[in-house]
Specification:
The chain is α/β, with parallel strands linked by helices and about 625 residues long. It folds into 2 domains: about 425 residues, Amino acid/polyamine transporter I; about 170 residues, no CATH class. Helices cover about 60% and strands about 10% of the residues. Its main location: membrane. One of its GO terms (cellular component) is plasma membrane. It catalyses: K(+)(in) + H(+)(in) = K(+)(out) + H(+)(out). Belongs to the HAK/KUP transporter (TC 2.A.72) family.
C-alpha cells in the first residue's frame, strides 16, 4: 500500500523544527480549550468533576490521540503519499488512478468533495476558537480584563488576515522556534500538575475509559463531542506531507508533540483534582502566577501560528480543487519565488476574514464556540479513512492487517461523529452549513463544467482532422508569422482556430496548438512535461502538456523549453512576435438543460469569478486575442 515517492529527504533538527511550526500549530494549541470543553459538556449533563470523571476524561483524550493521530495518521496515512504529497485530495488522486470503473471513481470524487468542503467549513472555526482561547487567559490574570477578550481577538484576527498577502516566507522561519518554546512550556506546566497529583498517571490505562462510560454513560457519550477537539488538526499532518516529508512529521509527533500534549492533559487533570475552581479554565489555572502574562502572550502567538496554518491550508485546498475542476480557478498570487506552494488567494482570504470575525462576534467565547467545533473535523477524518480503505483494498500491495486496524478506528471515529450530532442545535449547524454550501458549490461547478465540455466538444474538431479543415477552405491565406492556439482539451482543434479559418479565411504560416491536462498527481517531472508532434506539411505543430494539480500553467516559459528541446520541429517559429489565441467557452442559461434553474444560475455566477485567462496562463497581453463562444448549459 505504500507509494514510492523517490529518495526520502534527509531528516534533521531543522526539518523537525520546521514541521513543529507549520504542521502542529492547530493540534498543539488544543490543550487551551479541549479539557475545558469536556468539563463544560459534563456539567450541562449534570455530572460533577469527580475522580472517575477526571481520570476517564483524560484517558479518553490520550487514547483518542493514540488511535487517531499516532496510528491512523502517522502510522498509516503518512505512508499513502501521492508522489510525496499528502492530504485528502492527493489520496483521492491515488484512488482514482486505481479504480477502473467510472461510476466508482465518480462516487469517490463526490466523497472527496464532501471531505474538502467540511475542511473548509472547519477553517472558519479554528482561527476563532484558537485565538479566543488564548486571549481568555487575560481573565485568569485579571478578571476585570474579561471585557477586552472579544475586542482583542478581533484585532488579532483582523491583523492575521491583513498580513496573509505578504506570505509566510518572511515570518515562517520564526514559527518553529516559537512552537518549540510552546511545547516546552505546556510540558513543563503539565509536569507541575502531575507532581502535584501523581495518581493522575493511572489514567494512562484505557480501563478508565470503560469506567467512565459505566459510571456516567450519558455524560461520557456527550463528552466525546468535546474530546474530539483534542485531535483537531490531525489532518494537517497528512496535508503538509509534501512540505516536510513523513519522517520529519513522524519524529516531531513522537518525540515532541505527543509527549507535550500528554503531559499537558495529565497535568490539567491532576490540578483539577486538587483545585475545583480550575475546571473553568484548567490550562491557565495550571500556569504559575508569576508567568501567567508571558504564557498568555506565548499562547496568543501559538494560536496565531495555528490559525495562519489553517488559512494557508484553505488556500491550498481551494487551489487544488480548482486544478481538479471542482471549483473555479480563482486568482492566485504566489508569495514566494523559491516555493511555488506558498500561495495567496485574495477572494478566499477576504471571505474567510469576514466569516471568522462574525463567528467571534456571534459566540464570544471558546467554550461556546466548542459547541460548533468537531462535526466537520470528524466528517473529514471519516471520509479520509473511507478513501484510504478503498485505496488499500484496490492496491496490489494490500495489507489486510493494516486495513482491519484502520477500519476498527473508523468505527471509533464514527462514534465521535454520532456524539457530535448532539451539538448541531447549539452551534454545530455552523460548520455543517458552511460545508454543505461549499459542497453544493463544488458539485454545481463540476456538473456545469461537464455540460460546457459536452457542448464544446460537439462544436470542436479533432486535431487529426486539422488538415481537412484547411483543405475545406481553399481560400485560406497563409500569412507570415506564428499563431499559438491554446486548448484546455488535448486532441481538439480550438474554436479560435476554426473561427480564423471559417470567418477570416486567413491563418499564420506557423501554427502551434498547445493543449494541457491536469492529472491526479501533485507534480509532473520535467521529462514528462510535454510531447511535440508535427501535423503533416501544413506548418501545424501540436504541443501536449501535462501539469500536476498543484502546478500553475506557465505557457511562455513552457514554449521556450519546447523550442530548446525540439529545434527541428519548431524551426521558423518566432515566440517573440507570436500572437496567442485563447478560446473561451461562455456558458448560457438553457431551458433544456439537465441542470435545475437554480443550479444554472449558481454556475453562471461562479463563472464570473474565473480570472482573466491571459493572467492565469502568463500570456503577453498585447499579443493575446480572446475569442468567446456561447455554450448553452
Amino acid at each position: 500500500m505504500e507509494v514510492p515517492a523517490g529518495r526520502a529527504p534527509t531528516v534533521g533538527a531543522v526539518a523537525v523544527v520546521g514541521a513543529l511550526g507549520v504542521v502542529f500549530g492547530d493540534i498543539g494549541t488544543s490543550p487551551l480549550y479541549a479539557a475545558a470543553a469536556v468539563v463544560a459538556t459534563a456539567k450541562k449533563a449534570g455530572v460533577g468533576v469527580d475522580r472517575t470523571f477526571v481520570f476517564g476524561m483524560t484517558s479518553t483524550i490520550l487514547w483518542s490521540l493514540t488511535l487517531v493521530v499516532s496510528v491512523l495518521y502517522v502510522r498509516f496515512f503518512l505512508r499513502a503519499d501521492n508522489e510525496g504529497e499528502g492530504g485528502l485530495l492527493a489520496l483521492l488522486g491515488l484512488l482514482r488512478r486505481q479504480i477502473g470503473r467510472r461510476g466508482a471513481a465518480t462516487a469517490f470524487t463526490v466523497l472527496g468533495m464532501l471531505g474538502a468542503a467540511m475542511f473548509l467549513g472547519d477553517s472558519v472555526i479554528t482561527p476563532a476558537i484558537s485565538v479566543l482561547s488564548a486571549v481568555e487567559g487575560l481573565e485568569v490574570v485579571e478578571p476585570s480584563l474579561a471585557r477586552l477578550v472579544v475586542p482583542a481577538a478581533l484585532v488579532i484576527l483582523a491583523g492575521l488576515f491583513l498580513v496573509e498577502r505578504l506570505g509566510t516566507g518572511a515570518i515562517g522561519r520564526f514559527f518553529g522556534p516559537v512552537m518549540v518554546l510552546w511545547f516546552a512550556v505546556i510540558a513543563a506546566c503539565g509536569v507541575r500538575g502531575v507532581v502535584e497529583t501523581p495518581e493522575v498517571l493511572v489514567s494512562l490505562s484505557p480501563h478508565w475509559v470503560v469506567l467512565f462510560f459505566l459510571d456516567h454513560p450519558g455524560a461520557a457519550f456527550l463528552s466525546l463531542g468535546a474530546v474530539v477537539l483534542a485531535v483537531t488538526g490531525a489532518e494537517a499532518l497528512y496535508a503538509d506531507l509534501g512540505h516536510f516529508g513523513r519522517r520529519a512529521i513522524a519524529r516531531a509527533w513522537v518525540f515532541v508533540v505527543f509527549p507535550a500534549l500528554a503531559l499537558s492533559y495529565l497535568g490539567q487533570a491532576g490540578h483539577m483534582l486538587v483545585a475545583q475552581d480550575a475546571a473553568g479554565n484548567p490550562f491557565f489555572s495550571l500556569v504559575p502566577d508569576p508567568v501567567k502574562v508571558p504564557v498568555v502572550i506565548l499562547a496568543t502567538l501559538a494560536t496565531v501560528i495555528a490559525s495562519q496554518s489553517v488559512v494557508s491550508g484553505a488556500f491550498s485546498v481551494v487551489h487544488q480543487s480548482g486544478r481538479l475542476g471542482v471549483l473555479p480557478t480563482l486568482r492566485t498570487v504566489h508569495t514566494s519565488a523559491a516555493n511555488s506552494r506558498q500561495i495567496y488567494l485574495p477572494a478566499v482570504n477576504a471571505l474567510l476574514a469576514v466569516m471568522v470575525l462574525l463567528v467571534v462576534l456571534l459566540f464570544r467565547s471558546s467554550v461556546a464556540l466548542a459547541s460548533a467545533y468537531g462535526i466537520a473535523v470528524t466528517l473529514t477524518i471519516s471520509i479520509t479513512t473511507v478513501v484510504y480503505l478503498a485505496y488499500g483494498w484496490t492496491s496490489r500491495r494490500r495489507i489486510t492487517g493494516r486495513l482491519v486496524v484502520a477500519g476498527s478506528i473508523l468505527v471509533v471515529v464514527l462514534v465521535f461523529l454520532v456524539a457530535n450530532l448532539a451539538k448541531v442545535g447549539s452551534g454545530g449547524w455552523l460548520p455543517l452549513t458552511i460545508g454543505v454550501v461549499v459542497f453544493v458549490t463544488m458539485a454545481t461547478w463540476w456538473m456545469g463544467q461537464r455540460q460546457v465540455n459536452r457542448g464544446r466538444l460537439a462544436l470542436e474538431t479533432t486535431v487529426q482532422r486539422v488538415e481537412d479543415v484547411l483543405e475545406a477552405h481553399h481560400s485560406v491565406t497563409r500569412t507570415p508569422g506564428t499563431a499559438i492556439f491554446l486548448s484546455r482539451h488535448g486532441g481538439i482543434v480550438p474554436l479560435a482556430l476554426r473561427s480564423m479559418v471559417e470567418q477570416n479565411h486567413a491563418l499564420q504560416r506557423h501554427v502551434l496548438i498547445v493543449s494541457w491536462t491536469t492529472v491526479d498527481r501533485p507534480l509532473v517531472p520535467a521529462n514528462e512535461r510535454f510531447e511535440v508532434a508535427a501535423m503533416g506539411d501544413e506548418g501545424v505543430v501540436l504541443v501536449t502538456v501535462t501539469y500536476g494539480f498543484r502546478e500553475r500553467p506557465r505557457i511562455r516559459r513552457l514554449l521556450d523549453q519546447v523550442k530548446s528541446a525540439e529545434p527541428e520541429v519548431m524551426r521558423g517559429v518566432n515566440l517573440g512576435t507570436a500572437t496567442y489565441f485563447v478560446s473561451l467557452s461562455v456558458p448560457q442559461y438553457s431551458s433544456r438543460s439537465r441542470m435545475p434553474r437554480w443550479s444554472q444560475r449558481l454556475f453562471l455566477g461562479l463563472f464570473r469569478l474565473v480570472p482573466d485567462p491571459v493572467e492565469t496562463l502568463d500570456l503577453p497581453r498585447q499579443r493575446t486575442i480572446v475569442i468567446g463562444r456561447d455554450i448553452p448549459l
